[in-house]
Amino acid sequence: MSAGDNERRELEEALHVDEIGIRPVPPEGRDATALQQFWIWAGANLAPISWIVGTVGIALGLSLLETILIAVIGQAVGALIFGLFALMGHRTGVNQMVLARATFGRRGAYLPALLQTLMATGWIGINTYVVLDLCLGIAHQMGLQPGDTVKYGLAVAIMIVQVVIGVLGFYAIRTFEKYTVPVVTVVMVIMTVVVLTRLEDISWTESSLAGGERFTAATQLLTAVGVGWGMGWITWASDYSRFTRPGVSPRRLYAASAMGIFAPLSWLSILGALSGTASQAGDPAEIVASLFGIMTVPVLFVILHGPVGTNIVNIYTASLGLLSLDMKLKRTTASLLTGVVGFLPLFVFIESESFAAGFTNFMSSVVIWLSPWAGVTLVDWYVIRRRQVECDALYADPRTSRYGDVNMRAVSAFLAGLASAWAFQYGAIEAFQGPVARAMGNVDLSWAAGMGVSAVLYFLLTRGRADVAAAPPARRVGSAGENVVSS
After folding, report:
1. In sequence order, which residues have a C-beta less than 8 Å from that of residue 275 and are 6 or more positions away?
2. Which GO cellular component terms are attached (predicted)?
3. What is the pLDDT of residues 177-203, one digit of tens each?
C-alpha cells in the first residue's frame, strides 16, 4: 500500500465512529505506528496547561533554576514509568482499566476505573478553564469586556468541539494530533523565542523562601509538576497503545511513548518558568498579555489547539472508564456523558481565586491514588504474571473469571499505599497534610511512599501463589499481542 493510500485510509477511519469500546482491538484495527503514538502524547501535552504549570514553582517561591531542575528531572522519571504502561496495551490490545481486572479482580477493578473516570473528567474541566481564560484574554486585548453569558457560552462551544472529536474515537484523535501538532510546535517555537527576547536581568537563583519552607516547596513541586505530572498519564497509556501494530518493536514504542510525554512537558515547563519569572503575573492570560503584547491575538488563537488536543484524549479515556464499570452504554453515549460531567470541575476553577493553588490541590489528590495503583500494577504485570494474561477471562462473568471477583491482596496493598501516600503528603490545604510529612518538616514524598509501599506489600502477599501466576499456556496473550493457543 502506497503512502497516499495509507493517508486516505487514515482519513476515512477518522471520519467514522470507533465502535470498538473496551473489547480487544482486532488485528485489522491495529494499524497505528510508534510515531503516531508519539504524536498523540505530544499533542496531549503540547498545550498551554503544560506551559502554565511551569509557573507553579515560581508561584510557590522557588528560584528559576530550582523550578526548572525539579520539574525536568521529575518529568523524566514520570515519563519512563509511563512507557512501561504503554507496553501493556500493545501486548494485549486491551485498554488500561480492563487490564486492571487481572490485578484487582473482575469487579475489584471497579475502584481504579471509577477513580480514573473522575480524574479524566477533572482534567476536562482544568483544560477547558485554560482555554476559556485565554480566550477571554484575547477579548480583553481587543478592547471587549465579556460578561458571564459570553464566558459560559464560550465554554459550551469549546466543549462541543472537544466532545465531537472524542465521540468519534481513537482514529479521529490520531489524525487530529498527527496533522495539528507540527503546526502548534512551530507556534510554540515562536513563543519561546519571544519569551527569551523579553528576559532582562532575571535572577536564576533568587528565591523568596529559605530553609525548611524552601525544601517543602521543592518536594511539593516534585510531586505535583515533576513526577506526578510525568506519570499522570499512566492510566491512559494502554487505551491508545492497544491500537499499535503488533509488529512494532516494544523498545521503539516505549521510546516514542516516553518521549511523547517528556519532550513537550520539559520544554513547556522551562518556558513557563521563564515566563513566570519575566512576567510576575499570576493568571495565565495576564502572563500571555504581558509578554506577547500585540502578538497575543494571533498566538492565542493558534495555541487553543493544545487544550482541545488534550481533552479529546481525556474524553475518550473517561468513556472507556465508564464502560469498564460494566455500564450498559455505547461508547459514544459515554463520551457525551463525560463531556457534560466535565463542566463541574470547570465551574470550580472558574470560581477559584488562584489557579496555582487550585491546580496544586487537584494534582495532590491525583498522586495520592495514582502512585499506589502504579505500584501494584507494575509488580503484578512484570513480576507476578510476567506480561501474560488471559483476555477472555477479563470479560467473563465475575463468578467464573479466573481472576475472581475481588482480589483482596491487590486491594489491600492499594489501600495501604493510599494511606502511606496521604501520610507522606504535604499539600496546600490541611486535608492533604499527612502526619509523617508534618513530622519530617513538611516534606512531600507521597508519590514515592504510595508506590513503594503498595509494590512491596503486593509482592509479599502474592509471591509463590499459583492462583495469581501467569495465565496458562492454552489461553495466554502472545508476544504479538494476540490470543494464541499452544499445543
Report:
1. 51, 54, 55, 195, 287, 291
2. plasma membrane
3. 988 888 888 877 877 887 788 777 778
Q: What are phi and psi of 433, to 5 degrees?
A: -120, 95
Which distant-in-sequence residues (6+ apart) come within 8 Å of 239 by Cβ? 89, 95, 96, 316, 317, 320
**What is the number of structural domains in the chain?**
1
Alpha-carbon span 334 to 346, nearest angstrom: 19
Q: Which residues are bridge partners to 484 per DSSP?
A: 476
CB of 205 closer than 8 Å to CB of 65: yes
Q: At 484, which helix (H) or strand (E)? A: strand 483-484
Q: Are 245 and 32 in contact (CB under 8 A)?
A: yes
- Among residues 307, 356, 268, 312, the alpha carbon closest in space to that of 128 is found at 307
Q: Whole-angstrom distance between the N-terminal and C-terminal Cα of the chain?
A: 35
CA angle 382, 331, 98 (to 5 degrees): 20
Task: Extract the C-alpha cell encoding 222.
Answer: 516534585
Looking up residue 11, the CATH number of its domain turns out to be 1.10.4160.10
Q: pLDDT digit string (tens) for 208-266?
A: 888 778 888 888 888 878 888 788 899 999 999 999 999 999 999 999 999 999 999 99
User: Has residue 462 been placed in a domain?
Assistant: no
Unique residue bearing C-alpha cell 528565591: 207
Distances (CA, A) of 424 to 86, 214, 451: 28, 17, 12
Look up residue 345 and give its three cell numbers. Answer: 470541575
Enumerate residues 6+ apart whose C-beta is below 8 A from 3.
none
Compute the residue count for the chain: 487
Burial of 2 (0-12, 13-18, 19+ CB in 10 A): exposed
DSSP string, 47-97: SHHHHHGGGHHHHHT--HHHHHHHHHHHHHHHHHHHHHHHHHHHHH---HH
SS3 content of the chain, % helix, strand, coil (to 5): 75, 0, 25
Specify if 366 maps to a domain.
no
Distance CA 179, CA 39 (A): 9
Range of the domain at 176: 3-348
Q: Is 90 exposed, middle or buried (0-12, 13-18, 19+ CB in 10 A)?
A: buried
**Residue 212 CB neighbour total at 10 angstroms:** 12
| Unique residue bearing C-alpha cell 498566538 | 299
Q: Give the integer Cα–Cα distance in Å for 445 and 451.
A: 10
Question: Is 249 within the bounds of a domain?
Answer: yes
pTM for the structure as a whole: 0.87
Q: Which helix (H) or strand (E) holds 300?
A: helix 296-303
Residue 92 falls inside a structural domain: yes
